[in-house]
Structures are given as C-alpha cells and as structure tokens.
Amino acid sequence: MQFFKDFFEHGNLWDEKCFRSFALKFRMETKDKILKGAEELFFKYGIKNITMDEIARHLSISKKTIYQFFKDKDDVLRSLMEHSLSEDKCRLEEVSRTSKNTIEEVFKLMDEMREMFSRINPIFFYEINRYYPEIWKIFDSFKKEFIYNSVVNSLRRGQEEGLIRKDIDIKILSTLRVELVEIGMRGEIFPTDKFKIVDVQLALSEHFLYGVCTLKGHKLINKHKNIEEE
Fold first, then answer.
1. Are 99 and 108 a contacting pair, CB within 8 Å?
2. Residues 6+ apart with CB under 8 A from 51
3. Which end of the chain has the lower number of beta carbons within 10 A, N or C?
4. Angle, nearest 10°, between helix axes 102-118 and 215-224?
5. 102 and 63, same structural domain?
6. CA max distance for the chain
7. Is-contact 226 105, C-beta < 8 A?
8. Residue 187's pLDDT is what?
9. What 3-state DSSP class applies to 68?
10. Quick one: 166 and 90 in the same domain?
11. Percent helix, percent strand, percent coil in the chain, to nearest 5
C-alpha cells in the first residue's frame, strides 16, 4: 500500500515520532477502508442482510480487524452516516460557492442528487428509518439544520438576484423543501415497485423551484432544461 511505500522511503523506523505518525495514518486508512467497504454493501443490498462477516469477506480482512475500530454493525453504520454527511456538507458548500446564481446552484445539486440516488438501493433509507431510529436522528438533524439553512441562504440569494419571488415566506418554504426530501424516501407514499427514488427526488426539486421562482427565474430554468420559450 502507498503508506508503506511512503514510510519506508521517507520515514525512520527508529524515530518514535515518525513511527507514531505512521501508525496513526495506518489506522485511519484502515478505518476509512472499512467504512468504504460497508458503504458499498449497504448501498447495494441494504443493511439488514449484511453481517460483519460479509463486510470482512468483502474487504479481505479479518472480522477481528473490524472490531478493533467498531464495536458492532450499528457502530459501523453510525460512523458511516456521520462520515457521509460530513462529505455531503463540504460538497454542497462547494456547489453553492461556485454557482453563478441560485438556479445554477439548484441544477448542480440535482446532478449531485441524481448521482447519489442512482447508486443507492432505496431499501437503505427505509431500513435506517424503520430499524435504526438513533442513526436516523443524525440524518434528521443534518436535514433540519444544515440543509434548512442552505435552503434559506439560497432563497435569499435568489431574491437578491431577482430569480426568487420576494412575496414568499422563506422560513415556511425552506421547511417545506427540507420535508420534501424525506417524503420522497417514504415507500408508503412512493412505492419502490412503482417509482424510482431518484425520479421522485428530482421531480420534487423541480416542482419546488418552479413554485418559488419569478418569471426571470422561470426563463433561466427553461434555459437549463433546453426548453424553447413560447
């Protein structure tokens, strides 16, 4: 592995500080590898059907190695959720920072959404919601705090740009937008044998955007969708 190569080329086996740094890097890379492997399995097959043995086999490591970092599968799932949401936060902040306007921001976020939901089995969200309430709370807090504030900032930015209507109640509409994310994941509303979760999420995002936009915003939406103006 690369960290072994780096260590033996640039490190000093007899330097205690260097060795500790190497050991810490080794542990972090091993932990990240376990989370990545668990993510691949959970996203593809759901959570309930995956055991610690299967995660170990998937990664070609011993189950004992996994237990050095995580006490059980719930602990793996909790760490994975926290890690994934941290990455999502950085990615969404980058999208907001690099977008020319709020309409472009939403379409970039829809692209992110398309990529994410296309590789996740819908049962993953269903099982977390039903069987892992404490872990679902982590996602729920992220949604109600970070996502909510992101929507508030985006709508305010859009108002300044003349793309979002100034007569809307930003707090009400931001709360609605946040709840639409969860509604789109609920199998009793959108059964997975009839709807694709990615199609539902994109449709809800687009419907919301049309509802809050000015005429100028609508024209920009149509431009992004390559729709000819009538």
1. yes
2. 73
3. C
4. 40
5. no
6. 75
7. no
8. 84
9. coil
10. yes
11. 75, 0, 25
Altogether, the residues listed in the chain come to a count of 230
Give the global pTM.
0.82
Q: Determine the structural domain holding residue 152 and report its residue range.
A: 72-230
Q: What is the 3-state secondary structure (H, E, C) of 157-206?
A: HHHHHCCECCCCCHHHHHHHHHHHHHHCCCCCCCCCCCCCHHHHHHHHHH
Going by C-beta distance under 8 Å and a sequence separation of 6 or more, which residues neighbour residue 89?
A: 142, 146
10 Å CB burial of residue 163 (0-12, 13-18, 19+) is: buried
pLDDT in tens, 91-136: 999 999 999 999 999 999 999 988 888 888 888 988 998 999 999 9
Please tell me the distance from the alpha carbon of residue 7 to that of residue 183, in angstroms, as a whole number: 49
Question: Do residues 111 and 94 touch, judged by C-beta distance below 8 A?
Answer: no
Query: How far apart, in whole angstroms, are the C-alpha atoms of residue 64 and residue 70?
Result: 10
Residue 92: Cβ within 10 Å count: 17
Residue 50 near residue 42, CB atoms below 8 Å: yes
Together in a domain, 57 and 133: no
| CATH at residue 19 | 1.10.10.60
Name which of 37, 141, 44 is nearest 85 in CA terms.
141
**What are phi and psi for residue 137, nearest 5 degrees?**
-60, -30
Q: Is the pLDDT of residue 23 over 50?
A: no
